[in-house]
Amino acid sequence: MSRPIGRLTAAIAALALAACSTSTTSSGGRLEGTAWRAESIDGRPALDVQQQSTLRFFDRQLAGGSLGCNAYSTTYFADAAGLRFGEIAPTRKMCPAPTMDQEARFSTALQATSSSRVDEKGALVLLDAQGKPLARLLPMAP
Question: Whole-model pTM above 0.90?
Fold first, then answer.
C-alpha cells in the first residue's frame, strides 16, 4: 500500500472511532461540555441556589458536579440507546439534613438512569429503565 493511501485509511479509521465515542442524549443532543442544575429530583423541587445539585459532562466520558454540598465524580456512557452513570465518588462532608436528603436522592437518580431526553423547554430529563422521570435538570453555563 502506498503512503498516501495508508494515511488516508488511518485518517478514516480515526474519524470512525471518534464518531463512535460521541456522547449524546437519547434524543440526539451532545452531552460533552454541557452543564446542568437540578430543578427537580424524584418529583420534588430541588433546593435553592446555594445547595444546587449539578451535573457537568466532560470529555472522555467523565462527569461530575455537586450533589448539593459534596462534590462528586463519575463516568458515564451515552449513546442512542441510553445514558448510564458509573459509581458515584463523592467527597464526605456532613451537611444539614435537607441537603443530605437531596444528595441521596440525586445520587440515587444518577445511579438509576437508563436513558435521557431533552424536553420541549430544553431541560435534560433523566429516565429510569421504565421511562419514568428521575430528575429534571436545567442548562447552566459550562
Answer: no
pLDDT in tens, the chain (142 residues): 455 444 444 433 333 333 333 444 544 468 999 999 999 999 999 987 678 999 999 989 999 999 999 999 999 999 888 999 999 999 999 999 999 999 999 999 999 999 999 999 999 999 999 999 999 999 998 6
Locus of grid cell 463516568: 75
Name which CATH class applies to 23-140: mainly beta
Of 57, 91, 96, 53, nearest in space to 75 by CA: 57
Dihedral sign, CA of 108, 114, 119, 121?
A: positive
DSSP assignment of 27-87:
TS-B-TT-EEEEEEETTEEPP-GGG--EEEE-STTEEEEESSSSEEEEEEEEETTEEEE--
- In angstroms, rounded to a whole number, what is the distance separating the alpha carbons of residues 121 and 123? 6
User: Both ends of the chain: CA-CA distance in Å?
Assistant: 45
